[in-house]
Protein: Glutamine transport ATP-binding protein GlnQ
Amino acid sequence: MTTSQTETKPIISMENVSKHFGDFQALKNVNLDVALGERVVVCGPSGSGKSTLIRCINRLERHDAGRITVDGTELTNDAAMEKVRGSVGMVFQQFNLFPHLTILENLCLGPRRVLGLSPKDARDRALTYLERVQIRDQADKYPRQLSGGQQQRVAIARSLCMEPRILLFDEPTSALDPEMIAEVLEVMTELAGSGMTMIVVTHEMGFARRVADRMVFMDQGEIVEVGPAEEVFSAPKSKRFAQFINQILNH
Structure:
């Protein structure tokens, strides 16, 4: 990150954010700022609140307490979220592609309906981003005709077609076979190098170490440790994070 980036207001700010599902508290007074262009990897054991955290950032889940500000707008209601919807893209574990539409049609839908692009402009943009994720030759196929890795790359291209300022990834490789994981991580690494603001929930520690500006470790709904990736890998401050890293690396 440049000095100018660190001096400006964060593009994402979470202040004392809490979230309950019934009696279960998924997030407990979470505080996190993310700067423009920063790449943050969120990790932690299952059920620690990682996915809930990023789902609150794009209001797929509504937080119960605290403040979330995204790209200058506080997320107080659905109208506020609509204001920043175009700024935030999301890539899920499952690819969430429309099975009855071709790959090209999947990518054109958002730019045409939400951004008001003409059919030609939407098509040109879609083909540009399919080229970027290296599957332009699959444009006329249907999702079922693609491998899992290819479908996830389509999902990334679909998010990019909205030209967001922020990309959220919710365990994007967890549904993939091992041989397909590398191709998706390669695309994500290229994106990270382009300066895209990214928050990535993942257990892929090699990717995290290579790409992340900062690591966030969560456990039981709380942020236990935050720090520069190389620093927290080489000398984790919390015993829980050290145990987690050992488990992942020795798995």
Summary: Residues 1-87+166-250 form a domain with the Rossmann fold fold (CATH 3.40.50.300). The beta strands are 12-21, 24-34, 39-43, 65-70, 73-74, 88-91, 166-170, 197-201, 214-219, 222-228. The chain has two domains: 1-87+166-250, 97-163. The first helix runs from residue 3 to 7.
